[in-house]
Design brief:
alpha/beta; Rossmann fold; Helicase, Ruva Protein, domain 3; two-stranded antiparallel ribbon; 14 helices; 11 strands; 44% helix; 15% strand
Length: 348
């Protein structure tokens, strides 16, 4: 298991425990559904996402496939890979998942791909150039400053994230391919907001804030200098910690299916979502899914109250029902008081 020495080590990121946890849970359980990171500029949003590259698991893909097909998922292979299977010459390779970033000025053609209609009409063969979403298949798709991205592009991205299929149509000619990615986006609320229906498409939301702790600020400066002066040396220094975290994630993935979610804990999830006046039922489902994953990550085979509180902290802030012009924030302290004091659940 190699560690790239040109990437800031994930274990060296100072603070931001909730952001780290949200990323880790999404890797342990890809069905959680991504994360939106809200925070001031310069609070480590992009740094943390990119440093996560060294923690990502390895995947077995079809060698040379431009759609990054997983060799183990025969029913989701692209047409070219299916043809290779029939011919008996499909080769595989193992590589680490990657973070694929979308630039703010991206066009629809660059995003989903283009069909050369002229070549199709003249030569009678399909000529298709895949877009960024083909590369993002089975990887992390990262959108920095998603609130500044063109609305049409955002809508297209979120539709693909939900359907996991990209359809390209030009002049009556169409093609499609799989694009199943973990969606991660960041934004600075001072630069604009996302529409409520778009916020709801992100399963988890976390906030990053400028640290007011002098020790943390000093540590951030030191780590920054250490990285720019000797990135390879810094990678070696944190290699053991990053590899240990990766192994923990691998163990969590294997344990996931054995984790039990008791009816008592399901009832607590429903009570929390009702108490916080959450729109729809997606919040309930996400808390349950995240709580199971959190329990697995911490080596437990049964979900606890604390798993649910930690999951609710990430799944509910952007789903609270608000009146126009009302500014309301989710409070973990309020939630803990509700669960432990008013409802009488046992403290951990």
């Amino acid at each position: 298991m190699t560690i790239k020495d040109d990437i800031f080590p994930f274990s060296a990121v100072v603070g931001l425990p909730l952001l780290k946890k949200a990323l880790i849970l999404n890797i342990v359980n890809k069905d959680i559904g991504g994360v939106l990171i809200k925070g001031d500029k310069g609070t480590g949003k992009s740094l943390t996402v990119n440093s996560f590259k060294n923690i990502l698991p390895f995947i077995k893909v079809v060698e040379g496939c431009k759609f990054n097909c997983l060799a183990s998922e025969a029913d989701r292979l692209c047409l070219e890979c299916k043809e290779k299977v029939k011919e008996g010459n499909l080769k595989t390779t193992v590589k680490r998942m990657d973070v694929v970033e979308i630039p703010l000025n991206i066009t629809e053609d660059r995003l989903i791909g283009t069909i050369d209609v002229e070549k199709v009409l003249q030569e009678g063969v399909k000529s298709f150039e895949p877009g960024v979403l083909a590369k993002a298949n089975n990887n992390i798709l990262y959108i920095d400053q998603i609130n500044l991205l063109d609305h049409h592009i955002v809508d297209l991205l979120l539709d693909v994230a939900a359907m996991k299929v990209v359809t390209v149509e030009r002049e009556g000619i169409s093609t499609n391919y799989m694009s199943d990615f973990m969606l991660v986006a960041s934004m600075n609320p001072e630069e604009g907001f996302l529409r409520p229906q778009l916020l709801d498409r992100f399963s988890l939301q976390v906030e990053t804030r400028t640290s007011t702790d002098t020790k943390d600020r000093l540590e951030i400066i030191k780590k920054n200098r250490e990285y720019f002066e000797d990135p390879s040396g810094m990678a070696r220094h944190y290699k053991k910690q990053d590899l240990a975290l990766k192994k923990r994630i691998d163990r969590s993935q294997k344990r996931l299916e054995s984790v039990e979610l008791p009816d008592e804990m399901l009832n607590l999830i429903c009570k929390i979502c009702r108490e916080f006046d959450i729109d729809g039922h997606r919040g309930d489902i996400i808390i349950a899914r995240s709580a199971i994953t959190n329990a697995s990550y911490h080596g437990r085979n049964k979900v606890t109250v604390e798993d649910i509180i930690q999951s609710a902290e990430m799944a509910l802030p952007h789903r609270m029902r608000k009146q126009p012009f009302e500014v309301g924030e989710f409070s973990k302290e309020q939630l803990s008081e509700l669960v432990y004091e008013r409802w009488g659940y046992p403290h951990p």
